[in-house]
Specification:
316 residues; mainly beta
Amino acid sequence: MKIAKHVMPLMLAAGLFSALGPADVYAREKIDQVSLTFSLDTDNWTELNVESGDDGYSVREVTLLPDGMGDSSTPCAVVVLDAEEDYYFSSIKSKYFELEGEGAVFSEAARSNSNSTMTVSVRLKDLGEGQVESPTNLTWTDTGIATWDPVGGAGTYSVRIRRNGEAMGTASAPQTDITVYNLSTKITKTGDYVFQVRANGIYRKTQSSEWVDSPVLTVDEAALAYIQAHAAEDTGSAGSWHQDELGSWYQYTTGDVPKSEWRQIDDYWYYFNESGYMVTDQWIDRYYVGSDGKMLTDTITPDGYYVDETGAWAPK
């Protein structure tokens, strides 16, 4: 199932519900129970598969909310079901739903379209259980910047550096959500340098990968002078905006261009599409970005919904 880019609030109940008249009861057969099985796509950790177990209805749309919904930080899913022509959904009580996989627990449900459509929200307590793979293709640039390939299921990466086999610093390893980290300011002496990277899972149930070592970067006097001449304080987070006829995008000093993801830039959150362009005037899951691309917080969206101080849709 593809993850929807726009999730309308689940409980728009008052405006959507319609009563099931006596004629409809006799004309259609009721669905006695809804059975759903959830499984995370192992090739794409942000894609959730949902299978329906009985005849009479099918899955139309699945929206995965990795950060949870409302006051809960447990990953959630919102599933839209369609009844077949001669069937209708007969209940929204928790016992009406049989849920399996990923620790699925019923949260709430609503019917609409003369009870032909069911929208159900579930919490996925065991989503992402397991361990992410280790980063690969670790590489040094000649200016002391560390790079590696993205890891499926990773939300952040921890990075640390060693010189001549010895750890540098005692503080906990810094984290980044991109696959680039500028270590140039850490290289202040000649020697053999290695950086280490560990992938950290998106979900609470996901174990981090093992630490992986990069190839050795041998720094002699000439290399040290070159790195210090090009050293920068930012760790891959600084950059600049660019624009063309298709829109605006952001490029970091390390060359990275964010795509299909959220990024916090100068204290504001932006979403960039698969081509790297900033998205405007639309919902991204349960968050809304305005005409300037900034995620709205603690306000009413143009289509009339309240988003809280974190930017998430919050029913009032």
